[in-house]
């Protein structure tokens, strides 16, 4: 079927006049009439009939007009979708993230992003670093966010550092080390509250002790979440070694205090990874731009 001729027929049926259709489409009346005759011949179906000084739709023409109206409405929907997609207004962004960015950065990034791009779907998988990389390589996700030690990536992966975050020793404000400077050897004599075995921050702590020949710390309490870990220290038990991103607000409010340990100044590296030589969707590009402009997100209040 000649869709151009069908579009001309749809214009005539919509306006009720070949003249008005000609003016609307900026095509001469004879040219439109010739195209309609060809369409009627192609379909073996009369579409228009004389009606007084004007024209009217035949029964077949009326039914074809109803179908053509649906067809061109869908066409407009497709055009709007393509325009929105190109401008990042629609689409689906799939992400994998390790614990720290998933819990302390990505929620704020998404909230800011959705204020502008409400129609974009977003999926976040919280996982460990190796599985995040596996999902990225397997094209299960578009972006992978990491927080912790610098990772080694295959040649097919591009990594972009977003920012670096300090790791702090923290205690309750009435602890004898609160606000003081002590040696690492002194610090590790305290009972520690940490996340479970396998946590990247816990592994950093153990590696720090080995590097500076300090005794292994006594981890007296362990939790699966950072909130529980921090709340235990706020309540007055032991010390913890944690990302400043997590506890900075608690320190500023006086609910926790830093301990300044001589020598080591460990940092977390926060980065985003993408597949090399593979363009991101416009929506994902827009999200990455927002992340670059607001890398720290909003610091979290862990509660009262």
TrEMBL record:
Gene3D superfamilies given in the database record: 3.40.190.290, Winged helix-like DNA-binding domain superfamily/Winged helix DNA-binding domain
Database matches in InterPro entries: LysR_HTH_N, LysR_subst-bd, WH-like_DNA-bd_sf, WH_DNA-bd_sf
TM spans (from-to): none
One term of GO molecular function: DNA-binding transcription factor activity
Keywords: DNA-binding, Transcription, Transcription regulation
HTH lysR-type domain span: 1-58
PROSITE patterns membership: HTH_LYSR
Family label: Belongs to the LysR transcriptional regulatory family.
Name by which UniProt lists this protein: Bacterial regulatory helix-turn-helix, lysR family protein
Provenance organism: Paenibacillus macerans (Bacillus macerans)
Lineage: Bacteria, Bacillati, Bacillota, Bacilli, Bacillales
């Amino acid at each position: 079927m000649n869709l151009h001729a069908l579009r001309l027929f749809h214009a005539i049926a919509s306006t009720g006049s070949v003249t008005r259709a000609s003016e609307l489409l900026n095509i001469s009346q004879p040219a439109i009439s010739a195209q309609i005759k060809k369409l009627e011949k192609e379909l073996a179906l009369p579409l228009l009939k004389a009606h007084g000084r004007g024209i009217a739709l035949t029964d077949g023409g009326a039914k074809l007009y109803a179908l053509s109206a649906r067809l061109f409405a869908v066409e407009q929907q497709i055009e709007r979708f393509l325009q929105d997609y190109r401008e990042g207004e629609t689409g689906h962004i799939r992400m994998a993230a390790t614990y720290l960015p998933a819990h302390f950065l990505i929620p704020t990034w998404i909230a800011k992003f959705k204020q502008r791009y409400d129609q974009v779907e977003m999926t976040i998988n919280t996982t460990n670093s190796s599985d995040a990389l596996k999902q990225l390589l397997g094209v299960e996700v578009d972006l992978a966010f990491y927080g912790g030690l610098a990772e080694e990536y295959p040649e097919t992966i591009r990594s972009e550092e977003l920012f670096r975050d300090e790791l702090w020793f923290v205690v309750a404000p009435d602890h004898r080390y609160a606000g003081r400077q002590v040696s690492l050897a002194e610090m590790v004599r305290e009972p520690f509250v940490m996340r479970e075995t396998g946590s990247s921050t816990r592994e950093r702590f153990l590696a720090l002790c080995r590097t500076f020949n300090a005794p292994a710390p006594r981890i007296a309490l362990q939790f699966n979440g950072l909130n529980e870990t921090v709340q235990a220290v706020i309540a007055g038990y032991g010390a913890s070694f944690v990302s400043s991103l997590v506890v900075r607000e608690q320190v500023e409010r006086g609910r926790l205090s830093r301990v300044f340990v001589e020598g080591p100044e460990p940092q977390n590296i926060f980065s985003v990874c993408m597949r090399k030589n593979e363009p991101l969707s416009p929506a994902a590009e827009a999200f990455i731009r927002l992340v670059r402009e607001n890398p720290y997100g909003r610091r979290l209040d862990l509660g009262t």
